[in-house]
Amino acid sequence: MPTINKYGTPGAANKAIGGVPTLHYFDFQSRGRGQVVRLLWEDAGIAYEDVRYSFEEFPEAKKTKIFDLNPTGNIPVIELNGKILTQSYAILRHLARQLGAYDGKTEDEMYWADVMCDIVIDWRTLFVNAFFSPDKDNTFPKHQKTDRNRFLGAVETHLKSNKFSTQGPYILGKAVSYADLVLYQICHDESLTQDGRKGLKEYPRLTKLVDAVEARPNIKAFLQSDRYLG
Q: Around 113, how many Cα atoms within 13 Å sit in the side-chain half-sphere?
């Protein structure tokens, strides 16, 4: 049986998105694409229900519950007041628009947030392929030395040079966006946010973004709570 927990007290942010959402995702610590959704909810003060499936029980759940919710059988999936939301990055953008935040104020800002998100999508695909490969002992170290460094360098260059990103710690300068959470999460999952940021020492601008995300009051409280599973 999946593990089910409820967090938070419904407030204005829940009203803005239409209720208390239920997230279906892997019981994979505080990692993965589903965790980015949790992170946005935590930052925005959204109460939610968290349904976690172990890797062992998910294949059976996929045949029944998950396929009933999403014809592709993929997670994360969200149930929200009679609606079914799928595709993690589309979910983030949808929630941002409902909240009137996390998405930029102009078309150019929204475009830039989407660009940085899409870069991370490409990065995460390579990370997942290497990390979950049957030949992980070879593929993951190779990924760390090649693709990961390539993406770290590209992100650092973008953050140092874009007209929005140079105005503050976040991708859009002084205002946090959903893309900051996406970027933070891949750094976390690549174990770059731990151990004193050793893996980010050559990327000071990205380190500044990671620090800014972790310093946000609700996220700081989350990372220090028993809801954060590493």
A: 26
